[in-house]
Amino acid sequence: MRQALDEAQRSFDAGEVPVGAVVVIGGQIVGRAHNAPLALSDPTAHAEVLALRAAGTKVGNYRLTGATLYATVEPCVMCCGAALHARVIRVVYGAADVKAGGVSSLYRLLDDARLNHRAVAQGGVLAEESAALLRRFFETRR
Predict the structure, then answer these.
(1) pLDDT tens digit string along 48-96?
(2) Is 48 one of the catalytic residues?
(3) pTM of the predicted model, to two decimals?
(4) Cβ-count burial of 81 within 10 angstroms (0-12 exposed, 13-18 middle, 19+ buried)?
(5) Which of 71, 94, 109, 129 has its CA 20 to 30 A from that of 79?
(6) Nearest CA to 16 among 101, 133, 142, 103?
(7) How far apart are CA 40 and CA 21, in angstroms?
(8) Which is nearest to 19 in space by CA: 37, 31, 27, 30?
(9) Terminal-to-terminal C-alpha distance of the chain
(10) Taking phi first (over 0 means left), then psi (-120 to 50 degrees means alpha), and beta for anything else, what does residue 60 get?
């Protein structure tokens, strides 16, 4: 999660909403990214999606069997969908996102029995550090 926080700081420094993500398989980081929708003019350029893309490229497969996705903020519906399609087995996140969270705040996509894949989720890991970075970012915008 500390590596994801480093990515979030890069996002902050670039003027993007500070969210970072890391994908780990077998104890090794195989993908890492930070939010970049402004820089890439891409509404799907969330940290989680970009980290999953990087991991898929590195392992040579879109199915990231055995992967854990670490994100500084609770993933949104789009990012949860990407994690499920990638067959991620675990999602660990920091701060809850009461306005857009797809893991537990608004929706519970990762453990929805109607879907053909599920992932275990754990929230609140380094949540205060993640939330503090977000607060600092939005305070500069007001």
Answers:
(1) 999 999 999 999 999 999 999 999 999 999 999 999 999 999 999 999 9
(2) yes
(3) 0.96
(4) middle
(5) 129
(6) 133
(7) 17
(8) 37
(9) 28
(10) left
| CB-based contacts of 52, cutoff 8 Å, min separation 6 | 21, 23, 31, 64, 69, 82, 83, 86, 88
**pLDDT tens per residue, range 19-49:** 999 999 999 999 999 999 999 999 999 999 9
Of 16, 48, 128, 129, the catalytic one is 48
State the residue for tokens 């990515």. 7
Q: Whose CA is closest to 61, among 27, 25, 90?
A: 25
